[in-house]
Amino acid sequence: MRRYVIAGNRKMNFTPSQATAFINEIKPMVAGKDNCDIIFCAPYVTIDAAMKAAEGSNIKIGAENVHFAEKGAYTGEVSAQMLKEIGVEYVIIGHSERRQYFGETDETVNLRTKAALAAGMKVILCLGEVKEQRLAGITKEIVSIQTKLDLADVSAEDMKNVIIAYEPVWAIGTGLTATPEQADETCGQIREALCEIYGAEVAEATIIQYGGSMNEKNAAELLAKENVDGGLIGGASLVAEKFTAIVDAAQ
């Protein structure tokens, strides 16, 4: 059975002191709720504070991005080895905002993914279609191609450390949400692409989250779908009560 993973993507929110206060607020609210993994992926400068606050709890702290080089002249970037040394276990790669605003491509997403896996980290790999592609009826082709390009040269063994987050880009930060049926269908199409690459066993074992404006109101219906194994949560991860409600839906 695949395990639910509920991950909060903090984006560019919370200072270190605010991150500490939030983790301290939510810790007792999610304590003992162990039917899912709970992760908060935080901006680099808040990771240390968040990790200290989460110590001894069932909350894990991740990063929002990672560079593909071990070191070098890459001003402003952070390597997988840097994150690994401070105890970061998870990292988001290929988020739609990274692709849209910062020039991420399937090639660079693939390089970052392989670098993180080589360092022993777990990857939350984001992919999904834009509105024009959804309207053109080519969602299946787009997510299949992205899956194959983003995971090029990633082994079946390494897939044990890969979570895929399906992001319908048209639903990110817009208040729009794919219907549960659309989410299930597209997550299933990603699983079909994984089956083509790795076979049925890996495809069935891979956790696929939904990452398009999941919130406390729609989480239960989305999580009830066969191919939706959790959520990558944006706005609702900034409010303790809303995020906790999503964790409760996964119980």
Tag the structure with descriptive keywords.
251 residues; alpha/beta; globular; TIM Barrel; 43% helix; eight-stranded parallel sheet; 8 strands; 16% strand
Outline the secondary-structure elements.
Elements: E1 4-9, H1 16-30, E2 36-42, H2 44-54, E3 59-63, H3 80-85, E4 90-93, H4 96-102, H5 106-118, E5 122-127, H6 131-135, H7 139-150, E6 162-166, H8 180-198, H9 200-205, E7 208-210, H10 219-223, E8 230-233, H11 240-249
Parallel strand pairs: 1-2, 1-8, 2-3, 3-4, 4-5, 5-6, 6-7
Helix pairs in contact: 1-2, 1-11, 7-8
Short overview:
With 251 residues, the chain is an alpha/beta fold.
Structural class: alpha/beta
CATH architecture: Alpha-Beta Barrel
Please state the average pLDDT score: 96
| Total beta strand runs | 8
Stretches where pLDDT falls below 50 for ≥5 residues?
none
Gap between N and C termini, in Å? 14 Å
Taken from the alpha-carbon principal axes, the silhouette is globular
As a percent range, the share of strand residues is 15-25%
What is the chain-wise order of helices and strands?
A: EHEHEHEHHEHHEHHEHEH
What is the count of DSSP helices, taking H or I runs of 4+ residues?
Answer: 11
Overall number of domains: 1
Q: Percent range for helical residues? A: 40-55%
Task: Describe the 3D structure.
Helix content is 43%, strand content 16%. The protein has 251 residues and is of the alpha/beta class. It has an eight-stranded parallel sheet with strand order 7-6-5-4-3-2-1-8. Helix 1 runs parallel beside helix 2 and helix 7 packs across helix 8. It is globular, with a radius of gyration of 17 Å. The mean pLDDT is 96.
